[in-house]
C-alpha cells in the first residue's frame, strides 16, 4: 500500500483477503477493553456529577480540581489499554479499535477540562467547547493525513463499487462534485432529527446566544466524530468479497458506539453530559449502516468518504444538540429531584432518546445494511428528512415549550442611597412607619436619578430593563457581550447573572404533608416556651404582621387562612403572577405556619402574615429576591409600580427569610447588603436562616445570613443540641454568627392542601424566632422598630445549647462555641417578659 495523503480519485485497490489467524486473544482483549471503557466512563461521569450535587447540597463550592482529575483518571484508565490495542496485535481491526478509542479518550480528557467554567457562565462554556472541539478536529485531521497508511482510495473497502443499476443516483461525473446533499447524509439528518424530538417535546431552549453557541458546539463535536470515525476506520471492518455488511454493522457499530460514549462524556457541563451517555452510543450502529449504504451506492470512493463524513457529522452533531441546547445544567440538580422538575424531564427525554436511537439503529441496519437492499433515492431521503424537520417544529411549537428562556443580568450601580441622618422619630409603630417612608423616598429618588441614562440606552437596545431601588440595580436581558458592555459603563459597579428557570412540559406536582394534625402545642413550641407566653402572659402576637419571602403560602390552609392580612397589597408573585396566596413546593407554607400558624404549630398564632414568592421550584435569582424584599419595605397593589405605588406604612414589622442566594443562583457576597441595610434603617426586623451546610466551620456564607443587620438563626434538636447540618461561623468581618438558635429538627407545620408535614432545617428554626419577635412587639408596641434593643433582649435571655463539632479535632471548633451556638436557644417567655419590662 502507498504511504501518503489521500488523492482525490483513483481506481480501487484489488481485494486482498485479511490474513487469517487462529489466535482469538486480540479479539477477546478488545472486548474486555471495551467493557472496561464503558464501565470507567459511566462511573467517572456519574460519580463526578453526584459529587458536584452533594457539595451543592451542603452549600459548598464546586471542587475546581474534580473534573480535571476525573478526566486525567479516565485518560489513564482507558487510554492505557487502548494504546496497547493500538500497537500490539497484528489484527488490523483490533488495532483500529485501539486507535479510535485512544483518540476519543484523549478528546474526552481535553474537553473535560472545560468544566472548570462555573455553571452560571454557560455561554462561556459552550463557546469554549465549540472552539476546543474545532481545534481537536483540526489536530486529528492533521495527524490522520500525516500518519495513516492509505492510498488515494484505500479508505474504501474492496469491491465496494456499485453498478449504475445499484447506484440509485448514479456515480458523480469525474471531475465534478455535486453540491446537492447525497442520499446518505440526508438519511443521517433524518436520524439526527429523530433523536432531537424528545428534547423538543420535554426541554426548552435558553437565550439566543446560548442557543447559537450550542449549535456551534454540537457542529464541532460532530466534526470531531467525523474525523475520528472516518473511512479508514470503517474500512477495517468491511472485509470480504463483497463486503459483509453484518460484520460492519455489528463489530464496527460496537467499536464506534464506545468511541461515541467517550465523546459524549466530554460534551456538556456537569449533568448535561449524562443524557448523551445513553442516546449517543447506539448511533454507532446507525453510522455503520450508513457507511455500508454509502459504499454500495456510489462508484466514487472519494465521494463515498465525503458522504460518510458528512453523515457522521450530522448524526452526531444533532445527537448531542438536544442535551446541550434544551437543558440548563444548573437545573439538572438533586435539589429538584423530589418533584417532577427538570431532572425528571431530562431523565424522561433521555429514556425516550435511547428508545428512538435503538429503533433508528435497528431500522437502518436492517434496511440499509442488507446486501440485497436497495438504497433509497435522494428524493425519498430528502422527503424523510423534511418530514422529520417539520415534525420537530410542530412538536416544539405544540406540546413543547417554544421560545427562548435565557438568563438575565443584574446590573448593580456604583451609587447607593445615602440613608444616614434619618430622624429618630417617636417610638413604636408610628415612628417606624415614618422612618420607612423616608427610607423609601430616598431609595426611589436615588434610583430614578442615577439609572436614567442607563435605562434609556437599555430601552433603545431592546434589553427589557427592570429597575430596582432597594439595591440600586437594573435587571436586563443579555449574554456575555451585553455584560462586557455594561461592565465598562462608568456608573456600573458590577454585573451579575440573574437566573431564569426554563419552563416544564407539565406543572410540577404539589408537595403535601403526611403527618397527623396536631392536637396541641408541638414540642418545639413548648421547648421555646411560647405556649406559656400565651397562657401566662396572654400574648399571642395580635397587632403584628410577619412577612414571608419563600416558595409561597397556601392561603386556604385552616391553620393559616384566618391570619392572612388581606387587601390588595399583601401578596406578590414575581415568578408566576398569581393573584392569591398559593404554594406548590410546601417550604413557604411550612415556615409561615411555624411563625404564625394556629392549632399549636405557630409561635405567634394571632399575628397576621403577608407573603411573596421568591423561590420557584426551589431555585431563586438575585432579581426576584429583590422583588420580594422591596415588596416587604413598601407593599404595592397587584399590577402596581414599586417605584410609585409603594406603601411603606403597610410594611410588615418582622420578616422571616428561610433562604439564601448562593453563587449558582447568581449572587455574590455583597449583592443584597444594601437591601438589608435599608430594611434595618426602616425599622423592619429581618430574621434569616443560617443555612444547612454544617458541620463545616465558616459555612454561613450565602446572603443574607452573614450580614450584621440580620438576626441569623441556627437549629437545635429536642435535646438542645446544635443540629449537625446547622451552619456555623465565623463570617467575614468578624461578626458573630449565628446570633441565636431555635428548634429545627423534626418540626411539624402546615403543608399545602390542608395537611401537615415534618421537616428539618434552619429554615424551620428562623420563622419561630420571627414569631418570638412578634410576641415581644405585641406585648410592648413601643418596642416596634427598636431593632437594637430587640436583638439585645433575644441574646440576653437565650438559654445555653450544646455545641456539636465535625470531629474532636480542635481545628473544627470554629474559633469558639459562640460560632456554633451563638447566644444560645431563644427563650420566648423570658424574652417577652423582658420586652414588657
UniProtKB/TrEMBL annotation:
PANTHER family: CELL WALL-ASSOCIATED PROTEASE, SUBTILISIN-RELATED. Keywords: Hydrolase, Membrane, Protease, Serine protease, Transmembrane, Transmembrane helix. Belongs to the peptidase S8 family. This is Peptidase S8. One of its GO terms (molecular function) is serine-type endopeptidase activity. Residues 155-168 have a biased composition (Low complexity). It holds the Pfam family Peptidase_S8. The chain crosses the membrane at residues 25-45, 65-88, 100-118, 124-143, 186-206, 212-234, 246-266, 272-295, 307-326, 346-368, 380-398. The keyword DNA-binding does not apply. It comes from the Bacteria. Signal peptide: none annotated. It comes from Micromonospora orduensis. GO terms for biological process: proteolysis.
